[in-house]
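Filed under: proteins

Residues; backbone shape codes:
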Amino acid sequence: MTRLPPYLKRHAGRLRTDPNAPVWIAIGAGAWQWARDRGHLVAIVCPPDEDPAGFDWSLCARHDPVLMMPVGAVGGDQIRALIGALFRDGTGRVLASDGTRYLNPEAVHG
């Protein structure tokens, strides 16, 4: 069974009160601390020691673009795995904090 990533349930609660809230995903060695330090911003965590494909990211699909924040040491393989898992679960666009945009070739973009 696929698990929900950390803080996704908390973010789902935020979306009930603010359906336009951005979806932030922190990834990398500093992801946990970055997510905790955000205050009013709810950030989902992609744990640095786990395979992103092992999580269910489908809630993110309804909230394009997903904003990805690499924090601390993070490898390109882990970033590609997260983007692949997001695309697998229906996300159409991912925007990295450095401005890099990733488009899901399977999604229809307007």
